[in-house]
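Lesson 9: reading folded outputs for more than one chain in a single document. The general rule is that every protein is listed as its sequence immediately followed by its structure tokens, and records are never interleaved. Here is the first one.
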Amino acid sequence: MAEHFDARETESPEAREADLFRRLPQVLAAAVAAPAYAERLAGIDLAAVTDRAALARLPVLRKSELPALHKARPPFGGFVPGPASGFARLYTSPGPIFEPEPEGSDVWHTARALFAAGFRPGDIVLNTFSYHLVPAGMIMDSAARAVGCAVIPAGPGNTEAQLELIAAYGPSAFCGTPDFLKILLDAGEKAGIAPSFRKALVSGAAFPKTLQDEIAGRGIEAFQAYATADLGTIAYETEARSGLVLNESLIVELVRPGTGEPVPEGDVGEIVVTTLDPRHPWIRLAVGDLTAFLPGQSPCGRTNRRIKGWMGRADQTAKVKGMFVRPEQIAEVARRHPELGRLRLVVSRQGEADAMVLRAEAHSPGPGLGEAVAASLQALTKLRGSVELVAPGALPNDGKVIADERPIG
């Protein structure tokens, strides 16, 4: 039995990178047929975007911006080259954000995540992701059929009916959130219906170690996928249980929160994804989640880079004395003072007043650096704050730029 879904999973990193960036200029040329991309990418030599350094100079599109952009220019904010009628299915996700599904098999590139979780031709899959308006159900449905599985389009909820389906069809595999998997298992135990599935791909919610151990103890091998409604699967877990392997069909960057600048190797950053489907391209979409790259390759034999998994949210905006302070303002402080490394703005409460302290790693602190940094902080935020210079490596590598330590309530 094959160990990998396709050859892309084990090709050399250099060959994969070369292929992705060979295709990228063609996708960029297609993207500017959409008015919003034509505006954002105006004046850029798109044919020259053939490596990561050139890609990093393109503007970042933040997912948090999409609801307002879609509302201003419905339905897709001007980011899709063709009309809505040219797509197979049309969805919405919270925001609202409107999503088109192009024609084709496994257009969200999720089949390899199922394959890595042990799904094989002949399996029957109970798919409990929603089919109603959102794309989650069809993302997993099309992936399972691309692997060669039969699918029960169950959707979420309605536990009694789900147990009837399990008893009738005996599904060998499960797709859904980890908490709903536990609900089904617990309900089946009470009803005297033994679960037939022995493998699972879970996503969409936290999967803590305690729940992982419980599911494994009930004889089910469950694997995680990190996916979004707009991009499909971004990374997936393998039998190595060593981080999540990045989807081989995407270009993934990690940037400093609030900017489009790639973080230094090993640092936590915000996930930014570029897709290569000219029908519905995403060019440097920042999804708002934090992670870090893992060094080396996975012991499972897949050669693409790995991430640690979800490590928090990049949107750390805080309201201080009635003014919003944003990560991009702190990033601008760093740009103005190249002597600095990691920065963390700590917001606290002193008596009845808000207070800010900018802790900054200083590689070569010259005289007056603290005062100069404090002046930049005030100029950028319109708020006074003190500056504490610390040694390189003193701040935690967790991607947090603004730490709001004020008591709640």
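And here is the second record, again sequence then tokens.
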Amino acid sequence: MEKEILTIEEAASYLQVGKRSIYKLAKDGKIPGKKVLNKWRFEKDSLRNWVSKGQVK
């Protein structure tokens, strides 16, 4: 079964960018993600849609 919720490390690997880039995008609200108990989490489908639509704010 494919994982639906990704950690910051997994999101970085999935998007093939550095963890620092993901953290900065998330902190600035430019990538779809949520903080859960003080840790970033990302829905894989949301990331896929974000990339396909080129949604950088």
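What the second record shows: The two ends are 32 Å apart (CA to CA).
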